[in-house]
Structure prediction request, 365 residues.
Amino acid sequence: MPVLKKIVVQDFRNIAFQELEFSPNINCISGNNGEGKTNLLDAIYCLSMTKSAFSQPDRYNCRYGTDSFVIGGTFRMENETDSRFSIKFSPEGKKLIRDDKPYSKISDHIGVLPVVMISPSDISMVSESGEERRRFVNSVLSQMDREYLAAAQVYTRLLAERNKLLKSGAADDDLLEVFDLRMQPAAETIYQGRKRLTEDLLPAVKNYYSIVSGGAEDVSIEYRSDISGVSLSDLFRSRREKDRIFGYTTAGVQRDDFIFKMNSHPVRHFGSQGQQKSFLVALKFAQYDIMKRAYGFPPTLLLDDVFDKLDMTRIANLISMVAGSDFGQIFITDSNKVRLSGIVDRITEDRAYFDTAAGVFTKLD
Prediction:
């Protein structure tokens, strides 16, 4: 499995320049809020996924007063050899390099360094629109399934062209029919991938939620799609007049949603903060399990402020999952250094501690 041995970060968020070496097991980053703990985890995520874990353009990740950033990492790969990866963003664009050779397509890198990140921002998957839940599902499937990633790219490009045509007012039936038929195979691949993932996630989410919460509530996930039981071309054909009126495509897999439920009710309406956090932790650990099975080794796990809004019982249950399973390299942030060391020291002696202040990271003895 890929293990991050060393990272070099320059001008990423509030990190001016930092070079750090990590433990192959557990790495603990402590410090006050706003000092840069999350930014370091996001830099690691960016090396894996080629973009920030938070949905914002690359230019907003440049340190204040700069217009570029560089993140480089040395990984021990599955074949026990080291590979160097770097991502460079500037006003001219973004480059991704492996062992001094640029990727011809950045998307070719997705899945090479599998990663799962749990952060406080995940609450948006519960509290906001289906776009956040689709983004989560896309990030999981894109790492494991090249066919899905290609289909998503094709569908997104054709959807943008179809919407441009509808907005122009020049969308005749023959031209729309061409778009509809070209988009249908990609939509079917996306639909089937999301359906399978939902089916795979459900038992794992139930299991992890039971562990974290002590089995207090029953949880479930419902996948909803406009093309369930109907082809995309037939759906589009029935919506053409509506699409012309609105000037955009009003149906399709871009409107899919995943409804998170607790005791048959939506988690967003009936779950407490602790229950919502427990559900999201269970969801991400379920993602971790699925990716571990798909790859044959565990992905890198990034736990950002994961103890927030969990009571001590749930924290103890969460840590028991990490300690009792075949986990790989883990990065944990927490503002409470004493709590973090007290938890991690009970798990393993093979760990590294870092203190954070104003984007500067100090490795502790």
The chain has a mean pLDDT of 91. The first strand starts at residue 3 and ends at 12. The first helix runs from residue 37 to 49.
